[in-house]
Design goal:
Length: 283
């Protein structure tokens, strides 16, 4: 990654023709991520990672790591907006958190050597399947009737999956936890979002520690995006709790479709680039 790091624009290296452009670009994507976070109970990395690549020319791994640090203040602000109205399931949150921390650490350790296109394809397909299930199945609880141990184990596994995606793709994991809570436990949409955000905070924070040790985080860009995006997270949380549950679920299903298509497209482009590079090195 030396070549990418050398060309990646940072606060000490001007973006485009103006050295201050990095600041307002980081602030703009922070506001967009904050609104998304509060409205849907996700960290906001879904929109931050591609914008960090497109607007600030960070490579995929550096964008993912930078996004995770920015997610911490954004998710904290959004979670407060849900918690003050009692929309947090602490028991489910603890189980998700156990899995999320383990998965996040595992994901960040795999980040430097993981074939990202294959992971993106799997995540894209999973997102489309979850969207279809949420639209067709509504809020049925799949694990109702199972023993408490099995219910807890499934929630831990959901947390592991969310944590791994956070570490590998720079998303907060809410894109997995919200449908997981709705479909597995039957929590209403607001409680699922609030609980997801609570877990996202810790998952993103623990994964960021590893990314900082690996030198993958553009700290000043992340802090600007995160701190500017935090108030937008509160606004998004207020809007998300105002919406009727069914409307919120349909909107989240739309977000899953958008995420799935985006990931599949990025996977195919990444795989094509790898194949092209391999062909170019053949004698």
């Amino acid at each position: 990654m030396p070549e990418a790091a050398a060309t990646a624009p940072t606060p000490s290296g001007p973006v485009g023709s103006g050295g201050s452009r990095w600041w307002w670009r980081a602030a703009s994507l922070g506001v967009a991520a904050g609104l998304l976070s509060g409205l849907f109970g996700v960290g906001g990395g879904l929109i931050m990672v591609p914008l960090l690549v497109a607007w600030l020319a960070l490579d995929q791994r550096r964008a993912s790591a930078t996004s995770l640090l920015a997610i911490v203040p954004i998710a904290t602000s959004s979670a407060i907006g849900y918690a003050v109205n009692g929309n947090v399931d602490l028991a489910a949150g603890v189980l998700l958190l156990v899995g999320g921390v383990l998965g996040g650490q595992f994901g960040t350790r795999l980040l430097p050597r993981t074939p990202i296109p294959a992971l993106q394809m799997g995540f894209g397909v999973l997102s489309l399947a979850a969207a279809a299930r949420m639209v067709i199945g509504g809020e049925s609880a799949i694990i109702s009737g199972l023993g408490g141990v099995w219910e807890g184990l499934l929630l831990v596994l959901v947390g592991v999956a969310a944590g791994m995606l956070a570490g590998l793709l720079g998303v907060g994991g809410g894109i997995v936890m919200v449908p997981g809570l709705v479909l597995l436990t039957g929590d209403d949409a607001s409680v699922a979002r609030g609980t997801s955000l609570l877990v996202v905070i810790v998952t993103a924070l623990t994964a960021t520690v590893t990314n900082l040790r690996n030198g993958l985080v553009e700290v000043r860009i992340a802090l600007v995006a995160g701190l500017v995006g935090a108030p937008a997270g509160l606004a998004g949380a207020a809007l998300g709790q105002w919406l009727p549950d069914r409307v919120a679920l349909l909107l989240f299903a739309g977000l899953l479709v958008l995420s799935g298509v985006q990931m599949i497209t990025r996977s195919r482009r990444g795989a094509a680039a790898v194949a092209k590079g391999a062909a170019a090195t053949r004698p």
